[in-house]
Q: What sequence folds into this?
C-alpha cells in the first residue's frame, strides 16, 4: 500500500505535526473535514496511498483512498483497517452525489479515524505535493520573531524577516510577482519602488537578472545568493523558499540606508526554512479562493442562481457594464461547424501533453494575458474553449463596446502568436449589469460558432467578430440548427453520395461541394481541389450517375448545399 516515492515521515521533533496543523497549512481549498470523532489532534507521521494488495498502513499515516468511492463497502472496510492500524486520517475524493452517507460516518466513529474529503478542484498529484512539502517542513525551528507571525500572514512575515535581517524585504512567487513586502522608509531605491507599485519585478529587470544567470543560481543553489550594489541600486540578498524539492517562492532583502549586517545571510537562510509553511498555506488558500470565484462566475453566466450572490463573491459592482468573450483555438482539424463552443471531444488523458491537453494550455494562457491586460476579467473553461467575463467596463455604452472589442483583438493576436494556432474570439454585446451577462454569453458563443462555420474568404480571415458582423452566417446557423432537429428523407442525393463514398473510398462529395461553392465554375472549383479541370469535369459528370442529383434544378442544388454544410467539412 505504501508507495515508496510518496511515503514520507515528518520529523519526530515536529512540535505541531497534527491534523489540525496540516489542515491549516494545506487544507484550505483542497481538504474538508467530513468526520473527526477523536478531534484533530492526532499526530501525522506520513502520507501513503491505499492499495488493498499491499501491507496495512503504518501508524500516524494520512491514507489517500485513491479510486475508492466513499459510498462503497470498500470505503467502510478501509476505515476499519485504518482504525486498526492507528492511521491519523483517510482522504476520499469528494463525490458528486453529495456528502458521504451515515454508514461511513458511523464507521469513522467506531474506528476513531478522521475522514477528510478532497475537493473536486484539487487533484491527487497536487494534494500529494502539498502534503510532502508540509511534512518536509515539519520540525524546522523558527526565530521567536517569526513564530509570532500568524500562519499565512505574509505581510507579517515580511516585517519579521526585515526586523531580523536588517533590510527592506519583499516576498515573491516564482514568477517574480510580489506577495508581500515590509514597510518602506524614505531611502527606498527605484527598483524596489517600481516593484512594489507594480506588484511585480519590472520586466526589464527580470530579463537582466535572467541573462546574468541570477535566477539559475537562486533556484538551483539552495542557498542565499548575493547581488552586489550597482550604482544607486543597493546590494541585495535573495533566497529560494522550498520544501520537499518544490520551489514555493523567494525572499529578497535590499540594503536600506547602509550595508547589510554581516550575519544577514545566515539569518535569511533560517528565515527561508521557517517561511515554507506560510507560503504553502498562502498558495492553498489562494487556489481555493480562485476556484470559488471561478465557480461564481460560471454560475453567473449560466444564470442558474440569483445574480446577487455570485456578483458579491466576485467583488463586482452591480451597476457597471460587462461583456463576455468566447475564445477558441483551431485544433488542426476543422470542428463540427454547427457544434456549440466547448463541445469538441477532449483528447485521451493519457495522450494529452503534460496531462492538460490543448484546452488546458489555452485556459492558462488566457488567465495570464487577461491579468497582464490590467482590466478585471474572469476565465471560465468550457471544454476546449473558454469564456472570458470582462467586468467593470466604462459606463458609456459605446466606449464599453470598444473596450470589449479591443480586449478580444488583443487576446486573439497574443494567443495566436503564442500557441501557433489561429485563435478566434466571439465578442458578446455589452450587458448593462452583471446579471445580464448570460445574454452577452449567448451572443459571444454564437459569434464564435459563426466564425468557425462560415466558408467566406473574407470572414475566414477574421479573428474576432460580433453577431451583428456575421448576420448572414448567423441566419444560416439558425437554419442548420432547425434542420438538424428535422427528420429529412434518408434517400436524398447527398445521402446516397455519402454512402457511395463510404463504400468506395471515393471523393465525390468534395467534388459536389466545390461545384456548389463556386457556382458551377469548373476551373475555379478544380483549382480549389487542386486537380486538373478535365479531371474535375469528369467527376461532375459521374455525380448524376452515382447519386441521381440534377444540378440544373435550383431546388436540388439548394438542398444539397444545405445538407453538405450540415455534414461538416469534407476532404
A:
Amino acid at each position: 500500500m505504501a508507495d515508496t516515492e510518496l511515503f514520507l515521515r515528518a520529523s519526530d521533533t515536529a512540535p505541531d505535526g497534527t491534523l489540525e496543523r496540516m489542515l491549516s497549512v494545506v487544507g484550505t481549498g483542497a481538504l474538508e473535514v467530513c468526520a473527526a470523532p477523536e478531534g484533530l489532534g492526532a499526530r501525522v507521521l506520513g502520507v501513503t496511498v491505499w492499495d488493498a494488495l499491499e501491507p496495512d498502513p503504518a501508524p500516524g499515516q494520512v491514507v489517500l483512498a485513491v479510486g475508492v468511492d466513499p459510498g462503497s463497502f470498500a470505503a467502510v472496510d478501509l476505515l476499519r483497517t485504518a482504525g486498526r492500524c492507528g492511521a491519523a486520517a483517510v482522504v476520499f475524493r469528494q463525490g458528486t452525489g453529495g456528502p458521504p452517507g451515515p454508514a461511513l460516518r458511523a464507521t469513522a466513529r467506531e474506528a476513531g479515524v478522521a475522514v477528510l474529503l478532497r475537493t473536486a478542484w484539487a487533484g491527487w498529484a497536487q494534494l500529494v505535493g502539498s502534503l510532502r512539502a508540509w511534512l518536509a517542513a515539519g520540525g524546522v525551528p523558527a526565530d521567536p520573531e517569526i513564530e509570532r507571525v500568524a500562519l499565512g500572514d505574509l505581510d507579517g512575515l515580511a516585517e519579521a524577516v526585515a526586523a531580523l535581517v536588517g533590510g527592506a524585504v519583499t516576498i515573491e512567487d516564482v514568477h517574480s510577482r510580489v506577495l508581500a513586502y515590509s514597510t518602506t522608509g524614505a531611502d527606498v531605491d527605484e527598483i524596489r519602488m517600481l516593484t512594489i507599485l507594480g506588484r511585480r519585478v519590472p520586466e526589464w529587470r527580470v530579463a537582466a537578472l535572467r541573462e546574468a544567470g541570477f535566477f539559475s543560481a537562486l533556484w538551483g543553489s539552495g542557498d542565499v545568493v548575493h547581488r552586489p550594489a550597482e550604482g544607486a541600486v543597493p546590494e541585495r540578498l535573495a533566497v529560494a523558499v522550498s520544501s520537499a524539492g518544490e520551489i514555493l517562492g523567494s525572499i529578497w532583502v535590499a540594503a536600506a540606508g547602509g550595508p547589510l549586517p554581516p550575519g544577514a545571510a545566515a539569518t535569511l537562510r533560517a528565515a527561508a526554512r521557517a517561511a515554507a509553511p506560510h507560503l504553502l498555506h498562502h498558495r492553498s488558500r489562494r487556489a481555493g479562493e480562485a476556484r470559488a470565484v471561478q465557480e461564481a462566475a460560471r454560475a453567473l453566466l449560466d444564470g442558474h442562481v440569483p445574480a446577487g450572490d455570485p456578483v458579491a463573491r466576485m467583488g463586482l459592482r452591480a451597476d457597471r457594464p460587462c461583456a463576455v468573450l468566447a475564445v477558441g483555438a483551431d485544433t488542426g482539424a476543422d470542428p463540427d461547424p454547427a457544434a456549440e463552443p466547448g463541445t469538441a471531444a477532449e483528447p485521451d488523458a493519457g495522450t494529452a501533453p503534460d496531462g492538460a491537453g490543448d484546452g488546458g494550455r489555452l485556459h492558462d494562457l488566457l488567465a495570464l494575458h487577461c491579468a497582464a491586460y490590467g482590466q478585471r476579467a474572469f476565465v471560465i473553461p468550457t471544454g476546449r474553449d473558454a469564456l472570458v467575463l470582462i467586468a467593470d467596463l466604462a459606463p458609456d455604452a459605446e466606449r464599453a463596446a470598444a473596450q470589449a472589442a479591443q480586449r478580444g483583438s488583443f487576446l486573439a493576436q497574443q494567443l495566436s502568436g503564442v500557441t501557433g494556432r489561429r485563435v478566434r474570439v466571439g465578442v458578446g454585446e455589452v450587458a448593462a449589469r452583471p446579471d445580464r451577462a448570460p445574454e452577452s454569453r449567448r451572443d459571444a458563443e454564437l459569434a464564435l460558432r459563426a466564425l468557425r462555420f462560415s466558408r467566406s474568404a473574407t470572414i475566414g480571415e477574421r479573428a474576432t467578430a460580433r453577431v451583428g458582423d456575421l448576420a448572414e452566417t448567423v441566419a444560416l446557423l439558425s437554419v442548420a440548427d432547425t434542420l438538424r432537429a428535422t427528420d429529412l428523407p434518408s434517400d436524398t442525393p447527398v445521402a446516397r453520395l455519402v454512402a457511395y463514398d463510404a463504400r468506395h473510398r471515393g471523393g465525390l462529395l468534395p467534388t459536389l461541394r466545390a461545384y456548389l461553392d463556386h457556382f458551377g465554375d469548373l476551373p475555379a472549383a478544380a483549382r480549389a481541389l487542386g486537380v486538373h479541370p478535365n479531371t474535375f469535369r469528369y467527376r461532375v459528370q459521374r455525380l448524376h450517375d452515382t447519386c441521381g442529383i440534377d444540378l440544373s434544378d435550383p431546388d436540388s442544388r439548394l438542398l444539397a448545399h444545405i445538407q453538405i454544410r450540415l455534414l461538416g467539412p469534407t476532404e
Observations:
- Residues 3 and 402 are 56 Å apart (CA to CA).
